[in-house]
Every structure is written in structure tokens, then in C-alpha cells.
Backbone:
């Protein structure tokens, strides 16, 4: 909403010395948030005066142009009273016309300084201005010719053209519909400075009668009030006066024609959208009804629209002529030949207008106001104001018929304890203050004694449909008292229990990985089929079952992702493209796993959901477990002056998962697996007991290629929720002070035997004396034989209560080797 | 002069004469002083203090002297040997010291050689900032609440007093899960977590909810369809806007330093009434001579978020007795806070995963 300050001042008796900045600050504090303070015309410096063209000579030039050498009377503005000689390139004016002249020394927008200069063989002492040069619109076809009543030669043109004006632009919140009018802005300005307010809507209007243009309202729920007035003998060629067009322009609307300009002006002034119909193009009575199925309307923007049966229509005998409160139709549009106008001022149901506007994607100045709620008592006054302006400016005559169908709804009444403002805001607001401020916003207020606090009863003004609850009234009182007066008091919460275990553990996981050199990534959870294909997920893969977003921003990524890998691999590729190829990235986030639940219920809001309703609501939502994923590319340890580095391998992905597991006090069991997007021979399945946790390993070469990652990049993804659920608290170990016995075992096993299984067997075989089993070498070669490999383990054995004898160590070692031999066809290498 | 001296004639024993003992001592001390290395000293030790050194031999000869002469000779030879032994020890220590010092000098390296062999990890600043914010409130006894991002329409809108035709539903354009008739959305704010909290806990409630939210905004330097919010909710007896102001002032000071407070401006949110926008005193210029300040762009204040008294309609839909309890709620953007707190100029940096960005924030914020 753009409000010229002079227009605000017309209704609010603000102090003359009040600056626009201070006015804007006060209104912002009252809830009308300033977007911008524009000093219109501030970039023009005088002398800028009205001139009368006394005569001119058209002088053709060699370049084909014709210039006019003009003699212009600028009164005494030039200091000598003599006609001013000015060269002008335009030819849209006659002798005797009033024009706008900037004299030497003046500056036009853009820092364009005017001086007397020699041009086309004359000394041109100034310039005759076009509308655009003055910042008065886009018209650049010729110079600006003023109406005969604009003023006298030598008059200051700033004043005559209303050039200089401060304009406040507000961002109006949806609850403050009243502030979409000068009437509303001025009311807040007046109460903000405690000065008198003149309501422009307060005018005596003729009583409704049966002589007006006939109107039938079939859909009273959508159109509670419909008022028409009719004018005839309107001069469609009458110009819009400068003051009016300038105000429209400053308020952000383009002047079009007098009749349209007047309807827009009244809308800005009062907040009541007005529609004008060319009466000669109306046939039969106006009928307000809902659209029938299949009905169509060509709206003023030239679009032929299919209507919904919910759309509220204005119709005549020919069919639809307008979408009520949203946009008119072409057939009855005002034109250059219109002489009789039927003026519509109605109150339409906000919800109906909102739905129609949204359905047809047709936001307009009218719908913006109707959907927020227009003052339902306004139509008569607004129509009367339009009549007044069309009569005085367009030479029209008003007919005595006044149609009014329907009545505005009864005013809203809100009662509340008079101490509620104090209790809610924490400010010492007494009942008298609350009453006074509510009266300022237009409420009729009374106080009644009651047990405890007095009861405040407020009849809400018709222009404040937002005030329905006691808390709404509290906000009105509070904003006038001023939010700056709210004291700052820290509430004392009861003792809390800190982070939940899960929350604390999630942090621990992040810290562990960062400590291991991984960098965290936050990516969008959107994904497309292309990503699933790039990962090489087979057709039936569970991760392809994803939830679609109905209105996704990108058609390529319409799904909520089921895996963190696409985002992570893309981030890795992006880094690679930026010259950062040695990467260890991780992400923890939720994924969305559909479970085909029922539709989510829309529950009542006047009570809490029942247990059953709550369960239904939960069931409608997909599973959204937290996942953890990592990706490694390039060097895990960098090469440098110290020697070669170490490229990341499949094992680094596993090690990261083991580090996380270890931080959570769980031990992952590892099995060989084949799952996309991993290398089929280098993929590990990670589990906790019987519970699958995730996978880790080297990425499939095709996946690396698809994402443009270095070969042998590695990745892992696990269900973090499962890991966290199994997390254990550390148990303090009992440290034996007896010496450790170390013994190494080298076993030759078939190549396909998993080292982890052999280690487990050794551990199991050696029994409770085992402190640790660590694989320290893997060897294949001729000495070992085809299809076999040698695994070398070091076993640490220790007893809590004694030094182990050589016999005990040998027995344990033998038992370990025996079990490995039985289970894995292992032979001891000697 | 090998073997026991059978020729018992003390006059014959010349090495035990005083001048001779003195000469041996002098010779030994001179050799010790002249030893330039541990190796040389080793030889000197053999020559002058070894079994066959003159003084050792002289000592051995003492036994051959007659008893009276023994004492006299012993008093000459003993101190001489002692002096040599001490000199050896001292010289040994000095030479060892020199040797070690030289080795240390020889072992010197160029300590300016870079060492970046092991990668340095980092956590995402949105994560660490969320944690830091949560910690401010946890320190006051609040708890951290969470909820799903794919959320029921009713919880995201209706329960929060955003009815089906509320204009606010178009203000924050929503991602709808397909089919839309299933009435499931990507949450447009973290407020449904507040509703969930009220529906699953009894007052008093003091919770803060950081999380990821979604709106159909274009992706540019200041907008993103995915971003992060933190909201706070208090429901208790006798809660007023003063408690809201006190909480946000404390929050501001905790995040931006002592003396940084907030300002409220009336605003509108369906779930709160009265509602306010929260501005923060610029923590860089502190509102003084702000013209040049890039953080607040000359305003002296930074727009931080929204807040208000929980609308009683929300309490009712969430099963809280509005006659007994009042509450307040507030919310702000975590990414936005990150941007102005740390001078991030392009929101897209937050979501691109560029390691240069994340690494700049380390592991805490
Ligand atoms: Zn600043």
C-alpha cells in the first residue's frame, strides 16, 4: 500500500512540522510496516514554472527533423518578464497552450542540468518538459500540455503538478485490511499522534429506493450487500484533473480515463472496490449468482475462462459479465463512448473471493481487498463518493434511483476481562487506557462491574473484521500503548532433563566423523528417477519406492529421497568440479520411506484430537528415519614432501562406520554383500546382531562414472536410528595387572573366506583368555597356493587373576586354531 | 717394573718420589684437558688412569714400601689419582654435553615445512548453530523437541489457526505430497512441532524446536525451497509478553553478546495474538553511526524473526486449557541468522556442500 503523505494529512490533523520519517516510524510501531519512504519529485530542482506558448516557428532541419522555435511567456519567473525563447522538438501543442518549462539552472531527474545553450541556430533558454521527463509517467510522445485551469504563466509548476510528495509504502499484514485505504492509514496516523480524524466515509447518502438499476441477488451468502447508483450524460472525453491522476500515480496506479480513475481513486480513498458498467451495454437486470457448470467468461484481461460452480458471478440477460469482486468482463467494460455508468459497490464474502481469485490465479486490487475483508457498511458511501466525483469532474447527472440489496451483517461483539491487556502484555494497562484505545480504533466500548476484574464489552467497527477474539483487542490496545513498553522478564522454566539420549548421540556421531576428517554436507532431500538410475538401483529396489511431491519445483526431482547418497555424491562431484578432489564427506538427515498409509484426516480445531484420531494422523505419514552416509574420493591421506599419500578405499568407508559404531558403544558385524550402488565384490553389509544397519564399500565403477567421481570412490549409508537405539553406555573395564601373553597365528584359508569370520572363530576358540584378536597381515602368492590366502593374526591373551603359563597360552592358541580349521578349512602356516 | 717388587729398597723406588708423582699428575691433567673428543678422552683415560698408567703402577708399588714409607707415598699418590679421576669425570661430562649439543644442532629441520597429511573434518554450520541455539535454551531448563518434515496438513495449518481459506496459506506456498487429497505436506515451518508437543505433553512446556522446513520459494542468494528454522514455545500459568521479551533478550545476548537486546513491532501470525516482529540491535555497530554498517545495512537493527502470545484457538486445538494457561512462541531462520552472524552473502553456499564453506566453520560455532 502506497500512501501519499498529503492524502493522509487530508483526514488526520497531523502537526504541520511532523516529518514523514517520524510519521512512518510511528505507523510502523503501530503495525503498518514501512517498506519504503519515497520522496517523489525530490530529484527535480527548479526553476520549474508554468509557461504559455505565445508563438512558434516550425524550422525543418537538415537531419530531417523539424524543430519548433518557441516564444513562451513565463511571467516574471525569468527575472525580466520577457518571453523566453526555447527550442522544442515536439509538436503536440498549439499557441496559447499551458506547458511546463524548466528554466536554466534547473535540474531534471537523472541529474540532467538545464542551461541556456546554443542549438539549431538559436539560444534555447530552458526546456519544455514531457511527462516522463518530470517523472509523471511514461508518456514521451510529446510535451506535457496542461489543462486551461492549471494556472498562470510563471506559476510554480511543482505545486500545480503536485510534483513533490512524500509517499509511504507499507507492507500490510493480512489482518489489517482496513489499512489498504487512505481512510485506514489516516485513522492509525491520527490515533498515533492523538489528533482528530475526519472519516472520509462519513457522508450522508440518499436512501435506497426502487428506482435504481434492478439487481437480483441469488447468492446472498456470497454477496451480502450490493449497491448501485447510475449516472448519465457523462463526458467520456473529460480529462482527469492533475491532482487526481497524480495521486493515483503516487499510489502506484496508472491513470487510464476519468471514469476508471475515479473508481480507483475511491477504492484507494475508502478501501471499497468499485466496478463501473456501461449501462448501454447492460441488458436486463444485474443478477448475482454462482456459476453453472461449464459456463465461461472472457475477463477484462482478454482471457476466456471456464468457471467453477463455486465462482460468484455478476450476470445480466446475456450471461456472465464479471467475476464478482475479482475482475469484470469485456462486454460491459467502460469505453471512450460511455455516457451512462452503473456504479457497483458491493460487499462480497472474503472466502468466496479468495477461492475464485486463487482458482483463476487472478489477483487484483479489488480481490486483494475483498479477500481480506472490506467494510460491509461502506458500499453506499463509496458509491455516493463516485457519483460526486463523476458529476463534478465528468459533467454527469446522477439519477435518483439507489439500489441496495441486502444488509451488512450485525457488528461483532467481544467481551473480555478489562485486565486482560495487562495480564497478557505484562504492561500496567488499566481499564480506562484499554477503553480509550479501543475507542480510538473505532470500537464502541462499555465497562461493566463483575466479580474480579471489570468486564469490557466492545462492539467492533465494521471495518475491522479481524477483531473477533479478546486477544485481538489486546493487540489493539498493546500496539497503541506501544510494544516498546513491554518489560523484559525471564521466565523460570522447571528443571529440564537436557538433551535426550538420541539428540546427544546424534551430536556425538557428527563430532566423531568430523574428528576423523569428514566434512558435513546439508543437501536438498529432493531426488528424481535419474538419480536412482545413476546409482544403478535395480527395478525392484526398495529405495525406488519414494513419495512424490505434487508441486515439485523441478520436474527432474519430484520425489522425497529415500537415500542420502544422491545428494552426497552430487556434492562430491560439485567439489571435484571445483578442484577439490580429495574428499571425505558425510551427511546425517532424515529420509522419507512411504508406507502407503491412509490420507491424513482434517480434524476439528475446537478440541484436541482423540487418541484414535491422533493415531490415524500418525499412520498417514511416511517413515522418516535418520540416516548417516559418507563418501570418500581421492586421497584419504595426502601425499606431500613426506612421501606418497594414501588413496581412500572401500575400507575407509567401513572404518568410518566402525568409528561411529565404536563411539556409540556398539560393534558392527560385517558380511560380504552385493547391493547397488556398490561394487559387487567390494560391498559390506553392516549389522548389529540380526538387525541390518546398512552398507559400505567401494562404489560401482559405473556409479563413479555417472557422477563423475574418481574411480574407486567409496561410500557408506546406514540407518542412524537403528544404531542409536542399540547404543550402549561404556562399562569401565577391569584392568588386569598380570602380564599379557602375545602369540601370532598365520592361517591359510580359501580366498572367499571372510577375515572377519576367521577372527571371530579365533576369538571364540581361544575362549575367555582372549583380550584381542587383530589381523595384521594378508598375503597371497605362490607359496600359499592358488585360491588361497594367508591371514596373520596377533592374539593377546591375559587372565584377570594370574600370570598365564606357557601351557595355558599354548592350549588357548591350539583351541583357536582348531576351531578356525574346522570352520574355515584353515591350515596353520609355519 | 712388572711383578711384585722383591728388591726391598725404598730408595730405589723412584716413581714414588714427590716430583715424579707430581709430574705424572700434571701429565695426566694436561692430557685430559687437551682431549678434544670423547674418543680421545677414552684413550687418555687408558693412558693416565688405566691399569698400566704410571699412577696406577706407582700405586701398586706402594705396597712394596716399608710401612713408614707407605704412608708417605700413599699421601702423594692417592690425591694425585683422585685429582685425575675427577678431571676425567668433569671432562667426560663436558665432552658429552658438547657432543649432544652438536647432535641436536645437526638434527635441526625446517619447521616451516607444511604438514597437511591428515584431512581436517568439519561440521556444517547449520548443525553447529542449531546446537548452539539449543544449548542456550537447554541451559535455562528447556528441552529440544522434534517432529517429522513430511507432516499432516492439519498439524501444519489447521491446528495452528490457519484454516483452509486463510490467506496465510498462500503467503507461504506449500509443497504438497502427491496425491494432494492425502493432505500431507512438507512442513512450511517448525510450528507443527509445537502443536505435537502440546498434544503429547502436559504444561508447563518449555521447548525449542530447530529443524528443516520447506516452501516453494525460488532458489537464489537469499531464498531457498529448503531452509532451517528454530522455534520456541512456552505454555505455563501466568505467561505474558514480558516473558517473551525477556526470553528473546536473553537469547540475543547469548548469541550476540552482552547488551544486545530486541525490539518488537506489531505484526500478524495466525498462531499468535498479539504478534510481533523481532528486531535485534545490530551486534556490529550497536545502532551507533550505522550508516556504514554492512551487517544491518545502515538500519541499526536486524530483522530476526516473529513471535507472539499463543493464540487461544491453537491451545484449544492442541488440548491445552486456555483459561488456565497462556503461552508464547517465537521463530527465526537459522540460515538467515548464520548469514548475518557470520557474514555469509549467498544462501546457496549453505546447501552446495562445498568443503571450503563448511571447513571455514570448524566443529563448533
Ligand atoms: Zn550495524
Residues:
Amino acid at each position: 500500500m502506497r500512501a501519499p503523505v498529503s492524502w493522509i494529512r487530508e483526514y488526520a490533523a497531523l502537526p504541520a512540522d511532523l516529518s514523514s520519517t517520524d510519521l512512518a516510524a510511528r505507523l510502523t510501531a503501530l503495525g503498518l510496516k514501512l517498506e519504503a519512504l519515497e520522496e517523489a519529485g525530490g530529484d527535480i530542482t527548479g526553476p520549474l514554472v508554468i509557461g504559455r506558448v505565445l508563438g512558434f516557428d516550425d524550422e525543418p532541419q537538415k537531419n530531417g527533423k523539424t524543430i519548433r522555435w518557441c516564444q513562451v511567456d513565463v511571467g516574471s519567473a525569468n527575472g525580466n518578464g520577457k518571453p523566453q525563447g526555447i527550442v522544442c522538438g515536439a509538436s503536440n501543442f498549439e499557441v496559447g497552450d499551458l506547458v511546463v518549462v524548466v528554466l536554466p539552472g534547473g535540474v531534471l531527474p537523472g541529474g540532467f542540468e538545464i542551461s541556456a545553450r546554443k542549438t539549431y541556430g538559436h539560444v534555447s533558454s530552458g526546456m519544455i518538459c514531457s511527462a516522463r521527463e518530470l517523472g509523471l509517467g511514461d508518456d514521451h510522445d510529446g510535451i506535457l500540455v496542461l489543462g486551461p485551469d492549471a494556472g498562470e504563466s510563471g506559476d510554480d509548476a511543482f505545486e500545480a503538478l503536485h510534483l513533490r510528495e512524500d509517499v509511504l509504502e507499507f507492507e500490510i499484514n493480512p489482518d489489517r485490511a482496513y489499512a489498504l485505504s487512505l481512510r485506514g492509514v489516516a485513522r492509525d496516523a491520527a490515533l498515533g499522534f492523538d489528533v482528530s480524524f475526519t472519516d472520509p466515509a462519513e457522508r450522508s447518502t440518499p436512501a435506497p429506493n426502487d428506482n435504481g438499476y434492478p439487481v437480483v441477488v441469488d447468492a446472498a451468502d456470497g454477496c451480502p450487500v450490493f449497491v448501485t447508483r447510475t449516472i448519465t450524460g457523462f463526458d467520456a472525453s473529460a480529462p482527469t484533473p492533475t491532482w487526481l491522476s497524480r495521486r493515483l500515480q503516487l499510489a502506484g496506479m496508472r491513470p487510464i480515463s476519468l471514469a476508471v480513475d475515479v473508481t480507483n481513486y475511491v477504492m484507494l480513498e475508502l478501501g471499497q472496490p468499485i466496478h463501473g458498467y456501461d449501462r448501454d451495454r447492460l441488458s436486463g437486470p444485474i443478477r448475482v449468482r454462482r456459476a453453472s457448470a461449464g459456463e465461461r467468461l472472457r475477463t477484462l484481461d482478454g482471457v476466456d475462462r471456464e468457471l467453477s460452480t463455486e465462482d460468484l458471478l455478476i450476470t445480466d440477460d446475456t450471461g456472465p459479465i464479471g467475476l464478482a469482486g475479482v475482475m469484470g468482463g469485456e462486454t460491459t467494460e467502460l469505453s471512450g463512448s460511455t455516457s451512462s455508468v452503473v456504479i457497483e459497490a458491493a460487499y462480497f464474502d472474503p472466502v468466496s473471493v479468495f477461492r475464485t481469485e486463487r482458482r483463476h490465479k487472478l489477483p487484483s486490487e479489488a480481490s486483494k481487498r475483498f479477500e481480506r475483508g472490506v467494510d460491509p457498511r461502506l458500499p453506499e458511501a463509496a458509491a455516493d463518493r463516485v457519483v460526486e466525483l463523476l458529476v463534478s469532474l465528468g459533467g454527469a447527472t446522477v439519477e435518483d434511483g439507489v439500489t441496495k440489496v441486502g444488509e451488512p451483517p450485525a457488528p461483532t461483539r467481544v467481551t473480555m476481562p478489562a485486565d486482560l491487556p495487562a495480564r497478557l502484555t505484562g504492561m500496567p494497562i488499566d481499564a480506562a487506557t484499554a477503553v480509550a484505545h479501543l475507542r480510538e480504533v473505532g470500537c464502541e466500548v462499555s465497562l461493566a462491574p463483575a466479580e474480579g476484574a471489570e468486564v469490557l464489552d466492545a462492539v467492533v467497527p465494521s471495518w475491522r473484521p479481524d477483531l473477533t477474539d479478546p486477544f485481538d483487542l489486546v493487540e489493539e490496545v498493546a500496539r497503541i500503548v506501544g510494544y516498546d513498553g513491554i518489560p523484559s522478564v525471564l521466565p523460570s522454566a522447571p528443571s529440564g532433563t537436557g538433551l535426550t539420549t538420541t539428540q546427544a548421540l546424534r551430536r556425538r556421531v557428527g563430532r566423531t566423523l568430523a574428528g576423523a576428517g569428514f566434512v558435513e554436507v546439508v543437501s536438498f532431500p529432493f531426488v528424481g528417477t535419474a538419480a536412482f538410475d545413476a546409482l544403478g538401483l535395480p527395478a525392484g529396489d526398495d529405495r525406488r519406492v519414494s513419495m512424490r511431491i505434487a508441486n515439485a519445483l523441478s520436474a527432474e526431482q519430484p520425489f522425497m529421497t529415500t537415500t542420502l547418497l544422491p545428494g552426497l555424491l552430487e556434492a562430491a562431484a560439485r567439489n571435484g568440479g571445483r578442484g577439490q578432489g580429495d574428499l571425505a564427506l558425510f551427511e546425517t538427515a532424515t529420509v522419507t520411506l512411504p508406507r502407503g498409509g491412509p490420507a491424513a484426516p482434517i480434524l476439528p480445531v475446537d478440541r484436541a484430537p482423540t487418541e484414535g484420531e491422533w493415531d490415524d494422523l500418525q499412520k498417514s505419514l511416511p517413515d522418516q528415519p535418520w540416516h548417516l552416509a559418507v563418501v570418500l574420493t581421492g586421497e584419504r591421506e595426502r601425499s606431500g614432501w613426506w612421501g606418497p599419500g594414501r588413496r581412500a578405499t572401500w575400507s575407509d568407508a567401513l572404518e568410518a562406520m566402525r568409528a561411529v559404531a565404536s563411539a556409540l558403544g556398539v560393534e558392527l558385524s560385517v558380511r560380504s554383500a552385493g547391493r547397488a550402488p556398490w561394487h559387487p565384490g567390494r560391498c559390506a553389509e553392516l549389522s548389529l546382531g540380526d538387525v541390518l544397519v546398512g552398507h559400505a564399500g567401494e562404489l560401482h565403477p559405473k556409479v563413479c562414472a555417472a557422477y563423475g567421481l574418481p574411480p574407486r570412490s567409496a561410500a557408506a549409508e546406514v540407518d542412524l536410528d537403528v544404531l542409536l537405539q542399540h547404543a550402549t553406555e561404556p562399562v569401565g573395564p577391569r584392568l588386569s595387572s598380570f602380564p599379557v601373553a602375545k602369540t601370532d597365528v598365520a592361517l591359510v584359508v580359501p580366498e572367499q573366506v571372510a577375515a572377519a569370520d576367521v577372527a571371530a572363530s579365533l576369538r571364540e576358540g581361544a575362549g575367555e583368555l582372549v583380550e584381542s584378536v587383530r589381523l595384521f597381515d594378508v598375503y597371497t602368492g605362490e607359496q600359499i597356493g592358488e585360491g588361497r590366502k594367508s591371514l596373520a593374526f596377533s592374539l593377546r591373551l591375559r587372565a584377570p587373576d594370574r600370570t598365564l603359563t606357557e601351557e595355558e597360552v599354548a592350549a588357548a592358541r591350539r583351541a583357536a586354531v582348531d576351531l578356525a580349521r574346522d570352520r574355515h578349512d584353515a591350515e596353520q602356516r609355519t | 717394573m712388572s711383578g711384585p717388587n722383591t728388591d726391598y729398597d725404598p730408595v730405589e723406588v723412584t716413581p714414588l718420589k714427590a716430583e715424579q708423582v707430581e709430574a705424572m699428575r700434571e701429565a695426566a691433567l694436561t692430557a685430559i684437558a687437551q682431549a678434544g673428543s670423547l674418543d680421545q678422552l677414552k684413550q687418555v683415560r687408558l693412558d693416565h688412569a688405566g691399569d698400566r698408567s704410571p699412577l696406577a703402577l706407582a700405586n701398586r708399588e706402594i705396597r712394596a714400601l716399608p710401612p713408614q714409607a707407605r704412608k708417605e707415598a700413599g699421601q702423594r699418590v692417592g690425591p694425585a689419582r683422585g685429582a685425575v679421576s675427577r678431571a676425567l669425570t668433569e671432562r667426560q661430562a663436558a665432552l658429552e654435553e658438547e657432543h649432544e649439543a652438536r647432535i641436536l644442532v645437526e638434527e635441526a629441520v625446517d619447521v616451516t615445512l607444511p604438514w597437511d597429511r591428515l584431512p581436517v573434518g568439519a561440521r556444517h554450520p547449520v548443525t553447529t548453530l542449531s546446537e548452539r541455539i539449543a544449548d542456550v535454551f537447554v541451559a535455562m531448563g528447556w528441552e529440544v523437541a522434534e517432529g517429522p518434515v513430511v507432516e499432516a496438513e492439519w498439524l501444519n495449518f489447521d491446528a495452528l489457526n490457519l484454516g483452509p481459506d486463510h490467506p496465510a496459506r498462500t503467503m507461504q506456498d506449500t509443497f504438497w505430497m502427491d496425491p494432494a487429497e492425502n493432505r500431507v505436506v512438507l512442513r512450511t515451518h517448525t510450528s507443527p512441532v509445537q502443536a505435537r508437543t502440546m498434544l503429547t505433553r502436559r504444561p508447563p512446556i518449555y521447548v525449542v524446536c530447530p529443524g528443516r522446513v520447506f516452501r516453494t520459494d525460488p532458489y537464489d542468494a537469499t531464498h531457498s525451497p529448503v531452509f532451517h528454522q528454530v522455534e520456541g514455545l512456552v505454555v505455563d500459568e501466568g505467561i505474558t509478553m514480558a516473558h517473551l521479551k525477556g526470553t528473546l533478550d536473553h537469547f540475543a545476548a547469548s548469541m550476540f553478546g552482552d547488551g544486545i537486546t530486541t525490539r518488537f513491532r506489531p505484526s500478524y501470525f495466525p498462531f499468535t495474538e498479539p504478534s510481533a516482529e523481532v528486531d535485534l540491535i545490530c551486534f556490529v555497530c550497536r545502532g551507533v553511526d550505522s550508516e556504514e554498517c554492512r551487517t544491518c545495512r545502515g538500519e541499526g537493527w536486524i530483522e530476526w524473526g516473529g513471535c507472539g502470545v499463543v493464540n487461544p484457538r491453537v491451545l484449544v486445538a492442541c488440548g491445552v486449557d486456555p483459561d488456565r494457561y497462556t503461552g508464547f512462541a517465537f521463530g527465526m531462520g537459522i540460515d538467515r541468522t548464520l548469514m548475518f552472524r557470520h557474514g555469509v552473502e549467498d544462501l546457496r553456499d549453505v546447501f552446495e556442500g562445498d568443503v571450503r564453506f563448511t571447513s571455514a566453520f570448524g566443529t563448533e560455532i
Q: What stands out?
A: Chain A touches chain B through 110 residues (CB under 8 Å). Chain A has a mean pLDDT of 94. Chain A has six domains: 2-37+171-192, 48-163, 215-405, 417-484, 501-725, 741-828.
